[in-house]
From TrEMBL:
Ligase keyword on record: no
GO molecular function, a single term: mannose-1-phosphate guanylyltransferase (GTP) activity
Record organism: Planococcus glaciei
Database matches in InterPro entries: Man6P_isomerase-2_C (IPR001538), ManC/GMP-like_b-helix (IPR054566), Mannose-6P_isomerase_type2 (IPR051161), NTP_transferase_dom (IPR005835), Nucleotide-diphossugar_trans (IPR029044), RmlC-like_jellyroll (IPR014710), RmlC_Cupin_sf (IPR011051)
Residue ranges of every copy of the Nucleotidyl transferase domain listed in the record: 4-267
Segments forming domain Mannose-6-phosphate isomerase type II C-terminal: 338-442
Keyword list, A-Z: Nucleotidyltransferase, Transferase
Pfam families: ManC_GMP_beta-helix, MannoseP_isomer, NTP_transferase
UniProt cross-references to CDD domains, sorted A to Z: cupin_PMI_typeII_C (cd02213)
Domain MannoseP isomerase/GMP-like beta-helix span(s) in chain numbering: 286-329
UniProt name for this protein: Mannose-1-phosphate guanylyltransferase
PANTHER family: MANNOSE-1-PHOSPHATE GUANYLYLTRANSFERASE
Length: 459
């Protein structure tokens, strides 16, 4: 059995810590067994390895999340990159074509799909292993895992069973999306299960779905025409049209940490970052990524979350509504993690004459490097405020350290590699300060050094 983890989402339900580049699964707010802060994706990836499933798993994600995934899981994390975000059906189809064409999986291989951010115990992953036999022993086209409800929730979709087969397998009668409270009580009375977004099928099943739509099943052919795939969920495109579906009940702990009220329930401390809170408060939390302190007094059941993207103050019951309001704000992400480290936007100004100035603080991890690159619409000035490393400027290498100021005119080739952990204040100035104004010559440092050597000897 192969696993495909879906890592997507626009990152708005946990604003302001999450954004388009740093979705909820990347927030380091959970404690691992050693008390170290980890993200949801780090927690799940560790659990997969502990359950013996890490070696057969791949992650389907968008370009915007690749750097974050590699930063948190390592450069060798197995990733299939979507050319653009097009919902879960295209993402699953592309991942399956990759497994078939590139990794040479057979058409009878069982493929399990799961979100990258469930909050569960390791027993959940043992239950996922049961999907393979359940699918192979039955004539079902899809096998799902359903969580036995612990209360009548209006937040989750429900799997409504029909007949009970052997080995606890349930034949699925229909699905019900986010019922009201009375409907949820009624559904639980019918032994309905929470739909946790985990399901399995044979690889040939999804490839047939591509053929029905007259789309290629080969990865190299599907990738260039990815925009032609229907921009719909897998539920809409496939599940709702599939007749033979079974479900396996799971009665262990499971939780969707998609909103501030559910996430804070699993946080080990009430204050993360700089902050103080009056001692009598009940069920309130501060999550602060800024360098200024937050004081919370006299408010129970409240979340105060602060990051370079903004500040949120909300009653926990109202926190799921934040997405509705964030859509009105717009603006670029002010903090991102990259494969080489992280950056934080300190200030952005656009002058009436059209010139823009953007100031960033970059943290570059030791033995990592920025790509060798060129900008055609901006110049940059780098001031090294911590650490030392090697700077490349127009194919010339030199050692740099704290206090050095590096001027990079428009059109000049440049890169930097950290020998120790480095921090750099970067001042961009130009007519259009966008990520698209980057022409990358090389990501690999050894290749960058080789380019410099070739240019030196050619002279």
């Amino acid at each position: 059995m192969r696993l495909v983890l879906l890592s997507g989402g626009s990152g708005k339900r946990l604003w302001p810590l999450s954004n388009d580049s740093r979705s909820k699964q990347f927030l380091k707010v959970l404690d691992n067994q050693s008390g170290v802060k980890v993200s949801m994706v780090q927690r799940v990836w560790s659990q997969l390895k502990e359950s013996g499933l890490g070696g057969t798993s791949i992650i389907a994600t968008s370009h915007a999340q690749v750097d974050m995934l590699k930063s948190q899981l390592g450069m060798d994390a197995p990733i299939v990159i979507e050319p653009e975000r097009r919902d879960t059906f295209p993402a699953i189809a592309l991942a399956c074509s990759f497994l078939h064409s590139v990794q040479k999986c057979s058409l009878d291989e069982v493929i399990a799909i799961l979100p990258v951010d469930p909050y569960v115990g390791n027993a959940f992953f043992n239950r996922i292993k049961d999907l393979e036999n359940a699918l192979l022993e039955s004539d079902a086209e899809l096998a799902l895992i359903g969580v036995k409800p612990t209360f009548p929730s209006e937040k989750y979709g429900y799997i409504v069973p029909g007949n009970v087969e052997e080995n606890e397998r349930l034949m699925v009668d229909h699905f019900k999306e986010k019922p009201n409270l009375n409907e949820a009580v009624e559904l639980i009375g019918k032994n309905a299960l929470w739909n946790c977004g985990v399901f399995a099928f044979k690889l040939g099943f999804i490839l047939e779905e591509l053929k029905k739509r007259k789309l290629p099943t080969e990865y190299e052919k599907l990738l260039p025409i990815y925009s032609l795939l229907p921009k719909n969920s897998f539920d809409y495109e496939v599940v709702e049209k599939t007749k033979k579906i079974i479900a396996l009940p799971y009665d262990g702990y499971w939780k969707d940490l998609g909103t501030w009220n559910t996430l804070t329930d699993e946080m080990a401390v009430k204050i993360t970052g700089k902050g103080v809170m009056s001692s009598e408060l009940k069920n309130s939390h501060i999550v602060n990524e800024l360098d200024i302190p937050i004081a919370l007094l006299g408010l129970d059941d409240v979340v105060v979350a602060a990051s370079p993207d903004g500040i949120l103050v909300t009653h926990k019951d109202s926190s799921p509504k934040v997405k509705e309001y964030v859509d009105r704000l717009g603006g670029r992400p002010m903090y991102e993690e990259r494969r080489w480290g992280w950056y934080r936007v300190l200030e952005y100004t656009k002058y009436p004459e059209g010139n823009e100035v953007l100031i960033k603080r970059l943290g570059i991890t030791a033995n990592h490097n920025l790509s060798y690159q060129v900008h055609y619409k901006r110049s940059e000035v780098w001031t090294i405020v911590k650490g030392e490393g090697v700077f490349v400027h127009n194919d010339q290498l030199r050692h740099v350290r704290t206090g050095d100021v590096l001027h990079i005119p428009l059109g000049d080739k440049h890169a930097i590699r950290a020998t120790t952990d480095m921090e750099v204040i970067e001042v961009q100035s130009g007519s259009q300060l966008i990520e698209e104004d980057i022409y990358r010559i090389s990501h690999d440092w050894a290749e960058t050094e080789e380019i410099c050597k070739e240019q030196h000897f050619s002279k």
